[in-house]
Design a protein that fits this description.
2 copies of one chain form a homodimer. The first copy, chain A, has 562 residues and is an alpha/beta fold. Helix content of chain A is 29%, strand content 24%. Chain A folds into 3 domains: 274 residues, Ribonuclease Z/Hydroxyacylglutathione hydrolase-like (Metallo-beta-lactamase, Chain A), CATH 3.60.15.10; 149 residues, Metallo-hydrolase/oxidoreductase (Rossmann fold); 90 residues, Ubiquitin-like (UB roll) (Roll). Chain A contains 14 helices and 25 strands. Chain A has an 8-stranded mixed sheet. In chain A, strands 8-9-10-11-12-18 form a 6-stranded mixed sheet. At the A-B interface, helix 9, helix 11, strand 22, helix 12 and strand 23 of A face helix 9, helix 11, strand 22, helix 12 and strand 23 of B. Chains A, B: One of its GO terms (biological process) is rRNA processing. Chains A, B: Belongs to the metallo-beta-lactamase superfamily. RNA-metabolizing metallo-beta-lactamase-like family. Bacterial RNase J subfamily. Chains A, B: Its main location: cytoplasm. Chains A, B: It is an enzyme of class 3 (hydrolase).
Chain lengths: 562, 562
């Protein structure tokens, strides 16, 4: 195992391929890998990471692609393995830096991306649709695309042939042997590439800790069927808005049971529109009804397909649970099916929704009490198959937290890959590949890029300010002085938020007088700049709040000179 | 199902027993039940709830016992079922209101409580030790205590005989048939009380959603044994500091493998001291070593018993994972055993610890990859046994979120309890019991009481301020005016935190001028009080930040008049 500290890599030698993960190694999200050889750069995926409590007010976290800002012209292409947010969500932000980067992806992937571009008003992107089996020469890189099965259709693995060696990057994948669309992970291609000799195998680590095999998608059909068979009232199914196959199963069940289907939630409507238009979703004739038409039908004649399976506070489902949805009111006897995973960190919000629904008398079916979700990622057993079929010279686990990467690396070792051929790195780790020789040659800093409502970056310092403000509140002391007459003209006025109750004014009487005296003294002693006077205030008020109130609010002293 | 809105209950009639949960019905935590008959009040448990992200800077949440503040003298006793924080943690805050409330509990429960009192400097508490089988008359209530098995020793259920009927309250319990201390849940007593006729059965709902039976504590011994057998370096075991039996198993394994044991973390040292002193923990001779003595031993000669199994940022384990622990440095080959549950909401922090340890090359064994934890609560199968043995007339599910209460109620119905005999209420629900007749007669508001570092209450409005500040930051605009000369003397000065970057001063030039003009105009138009001038500022700056920056920071206008 080897997680080097930040350490500059050597200059890149001719015909050596350098691999740097710019995101997704250390987190589940913001997946992005950078490949460089002979001055040319190819990127694989460009996704977002969704923030945690440690990132208040942050909407998205981007890969560290600002590292590329002075290399933009060297980028020869961006390959997208599939259409999930954590793989394509950051593309608009990258293209804002250089709009004509050639983007390679499958039909559905680019279809979903195009929707994003509309929102971000990106018009002149260079989108190049590719399909499994295609070979495309992109400058120093010869790309070959391989079909893989995942929780969204049309996912691709990509092989990169370079003078530095042959890399196979799986993207996200699993090996469902009986997928709804019959499109299996192409192990024949994996085998053929293995025979040719895979010098570096980059594999999805998300489920490497999970023993055995991921259950086939179709195995959740009985649970869905049971819900439709038993429900005498309204049915709501919540799942990821990109999970076309899950939606397909619900459409099929609805057709069998003569229920109309209503998409609820912007992204659900949008994505299913794309999926249907491109032929990835088979929609039975006139089964879809709009939210407006809903009241024409009895509850037992419809099923709602909704977003919000992760308990997102503003999502359709959360609003139903809080009786705040403008159009939909759930009542006793209705059924809600959460056909989705429970992403770690979302438990509180998901259970809040389940409790809210339960309080309404709604029956809630979820992965805790029925088989209504299967993962989109290969479990340990499947990864072992891959390693044995590809028999790679070197391995680099990608996509996951450290614990996942380590578990994946151990699986590779178990199949005979020598430990020192397992490139275990986090974001920013620099791996050089030359023929069959791969090694970690350094580690660059690969910081988070935060995005909030403003679509403007949020800095670490702003975040730490927010954390302090959120935990402790702030206290502001305003004084007006006259530096010429060396007098305190007015104040100090004290404003506090977030940590006091009762009559603040009275509470401040003592300290106000103390600060007034301190300022007067300082002025008389000849202190003649507002900055130093503000320091005087900071000291006094700081000692007071920590001593008297045991709090550490943010302190904002303001001295105005007239 | 019946969750009434807030609605005042009728005046309590003579010889009718009124039951009001003051906490723990709707949350997992702050458990407290109030029983009143003929003007006398008996309380069962008085625990804390640990806050979520929605409660920034809050340390604890208390039951709604401020509802009792004008009834303190009517309280005839407080019964504590066991020594967990969510059942005894709030006692000091209650006793600060009336210190001589008689407190009934088992030896260990009161032993742990006494430690709390020391910290809170409570000296004259009236502690009355009781044991399983004891019968105690407390004014209108005749109490009988029944042994139950839980994840802490010496837990008790309590039966209340009153003129209003017989209530059996299980507290937290499970039915491990082979517990380490051989002290099983006394189903004979449950049966005898059932024969006598239990009018209201209040049962632990925590695991009501979990099918089957909770695994016996001793079944995790093999996993612990395996860790000790395979580890050639240091072992760290993290578990709840109150889980005496879990610690006992580690002590036994350490003795078998000739390792010394070192307690790490204040509460672990404190609680195990109490447990040993009172004879609930059998400590092999001179096996315990202090942190100071640790460096006398090779890593393979010791096992550390540590707090922090929930990833608490300041706990010993988190510090080890971040290489910040002053005394303990973990390295490759060490093993950390997380012998604990993963409480929903703690996933992020726990996985952060696991990732940190993995990064150090530490082997992490946790409930995700081994049987190293069993629950302390009865699963559905066990609850069914209870209902069938007690055959209660009425049932009131307690301890859990709505989903748990509902699941528990359904189990009761499955054993033949009529639906309208299941009292399904949340905190503040008022249930009157008269003989065999129980009914929900109202619902009072049972608000959270927040406690932070100051040991002073935190109000809802402070919390919402903190949430805004934490998400959006704040912007403060300070202007000095002279109301007599109707002039803007100085400013406006603008201070912003948490949402801006770059040169703020320059950014504000435009709006500063705009506000200056608005103030001057207002003054000339005769606006002559600072409050209205502040409104002028609020409007301008508000429009500016939301329009220009798309943010909604807290706005704090300050107008000082000289």
């Amino acid at each position: 195992m080897d997680f080097p500290e930040v350490m500059n890599p050597p200059k890149l030698a001719r015909d050596v391929l350098r691999v740097i993960p710019l995101g997704g190694l250390g987190d589940v999200g913001r997946n992005m890998a950078m490949f460089e050889i002979n001055g040319k750069i190819l990127l694989v995926d460009c996704g977002v990471l969704f923030p945690e409590d440690a990132h208040p007010g942050v909407d998205l976290i981007l890969p560290a692609f600002d590292l590329l800002s002075d290399r933009l012209d060297d980028i020869v292409g961006l390959v997208l393995t599939h259409g999930h947010e954590d793989h394509i969500g950051a593309v608009p932000y990258l293209l804002k830096q250089r709009q004509d980067i050639p983007v390679f992806g499958s039909q559905l992937t680019l279809g979903l991306l195009a929707e994003k571009f509309r929102e971000h008003r990106i018009r002149n992107a260079d989108l190049r649709t590719v399909a499994a089996g295609d070979r495309v020469a992109v400058d120093e890189f010869e790309l070959e695309f391989v079909a893989v099965n995942h929780s969204i259709p049309d996912a691709l693995a990509v092989a990169l042939r370079t003078k530095g060696g042959l890399v196979l990057h799986t993207g996200d994948f699993k090996m469902d042997q009986l997928p709804l669309d019959r499109r299996i992970t192409d192990l024949r291609a994996f085998a053929r590439l293995g025979e040719e000799g895979v010098d570096l195998f980059m594999t999805d680590s998300t489920n490497a800790e999970v023993p055995g095999f991921t259950t086939p998608e179709k195995d959740i059909q009985p649970a869905i069927e049971r819900v439709f068979a038993n429900s005498e009232k309204r049915i709501v199914v919540a799942c990821f808005a990109s999970h076309v196959h899950r939606v397909q199963q619900v459409l099929n069940a609805a057709a069998r049971h003569g229920r109309k289907v209503c998409y609820v939630g912007r992204s659900m409507v949008k994505n299913m529109g794309v999926a249907e238009k491109l032929g990835y979703l088979e929609v039975p004739d006139n089964i879809i009804v709009s939210l407006k038409e809903l009241d024409r039908y009895r509850p037992d004649q419809v099923v709602l397909l909704s977003t919000g399976s992760q308990g997102e506070p503003l999502s359709a489902l959360s609003r139903m649970a809080n009786k705040e949805h403008p159009a939909i009111e759930l009542t006793e006897g209705d059924t809600v099916l959460l056909a989705s995973s429970l992403i770690p960190g979302n438990e509180n919000s998901v259970y809040r929704v389940i409790n809210g629904l339960s309080r309404l008398g709604v029956d809630v079916v979820h992965k805790g009490n029925a088989l209504v979700h299967v993962s989109g990622h290969a479990s340990a057993g499947e990864l072992l198959y891959c390693y044995n079929i590809v028999q790679p010279t070197n391995v680099m686990p990608v996509h996951g937290e450290i614990r996942h990467l380590i578990a994946n690396g151990k699986l590779a070792e178990a199949t005979g890959v020598p430990a020192d051929h397992v490139m275990l790195v986090e974001d920013g780790g620099v791996v050089d590949l030359s023929g069959s020789k791969a090694e970690v040659v350094g580690r660059i800093d690969a910081p988070y890029i935060f995005v909030d409502g403003t679509m403007r970056g949020v800095t670490e310092s702003q975040l730490s300010d927010r954390l302090i403000l959120g935990e402790e509140g702030f206290i502001s002391v305003i004084a007006v002085v006259n530096l010429h007459s060396k007098k305190l003209v007015s104040g100090p006025e004290i404003q506090a938020r977030g940590f006091l109750e009762g009559d603040q004014d009275k509470m401040f009487d003592g300290i106000r007088a103390e600060i007034a005296k301190a300022l007067t003294d300082a002025l008389e002693e000849g202190v003649s700049d507002t900055y130093r006077l503000q320091q005087v205030i900071r000291r006094r008020i700081g000692r007071w709040v920590s001593g008297k109130l045991r709090r550490r609010p943010m302190i904002v002293p303001v001295v105005v000179s007239t």
